[in-house]
Design goal:
This protein is α+β, with helices and mostly antiparallel strands. The chain is 20% helix and 27% strand. The protein is built from five helices and nine strands, in the order ββββαββββαααβα.
Length: 220
């Protein structure tokens, strides 16, 4: 059950409630979290937000490629692109998401795709073109971002057209296509806005179930 009442799922097949896949290996999912968002800063402070997200992702052994503040169905939101080591094998998994935080809860649309048996081609080609001195760069979201997967220019969007089947390219394109079609429940949109981390979860409402999570209409 999520406050996302509709989105364009063209090309996707439902595998379980709230999870869809397509023939290229993309996984699309929708989520609702009935707790105060753990974002490191309000969306009104994008520099502090991006820096905090980059440090948090790095400390988890992954890498933040980009974070952008925007809107989903008029609700302020943050888009993240993250790369993580592929579990149990070589290569990486790329995750793209929009998080729509409210004061005591959040909704998320996520798209992810993993590298296959052939890995590192995009990185090797771009490294050969740019040279090591231009390939690796300080993280754009500020100092103190250490650990995790390194930041490098091969993850930038400018290279996507040359690698149309790369999982990062596919994730970016799918998220770009799906996001304008997302429709949120009016009750979710009417909740108090997110202003920073809160220590307590959202209180139950008259429309909430026994757990305190509002019974949103899920896409049928």
């Amino acid at each position: 059950m999520t406050p996302i009442t509709s989105l364009d799922l063209t090309g996707f097949t439902e595998r379980e409630p709230g999870v869809w896949t397509d023939e290229r290996g993309l996984v699309l999912s929708v989520h609702f979290f009935g707790l105060a968002p753990d974002l490191p800063a309000p969306l009104s402070e994008p520099d502090r937000l991006r820096h905090g997200l980059a440090r948090s992702v790095a400390s988890a052994g992954a890498g933040l490629i980009e974070a952008v503040v925007g809107e989903v169905d008029t609700v302020p939101a943050v888009r993240q692109l993250v790369k993580v080591p592929r579990p149990g094998g070589h290569g990486q998994v790329f995750l793209g998401s929009w998080t729509m935080p409210r004061a005591g809860c959040s909704a998320v649309v996520k798209v992810q795709a993993a590298e296959g048996s052939m890995t590192g081609i995009r990185e090797a080609v771009i490294l050969a073109r740019t040279g090591p001195e231009r390939y690796f760069a300080p993280h754009p979201y500020g100092p103190g971002v250490e650990g995790g997967l390194p930041y490098h220019v091969a993850d930038r969007e400018e290279w996507d057209a040359e690698f149309p089947d790369h999982p990062l390219t596919l994730v970016r394109a799918a998220l770009r296509r799906v996001t304008p079609t997302v429709i949120l429940h009016d009750a979710f949109k009417a909740l108090p806005p997110f202003g920073g981390a809160m220590p307590t979860p959202m209180p139950p409402s008259p429309a909430a179930g026994p757990s305190g999570v509002r019974r949103w209409f899920r896409r049928g």
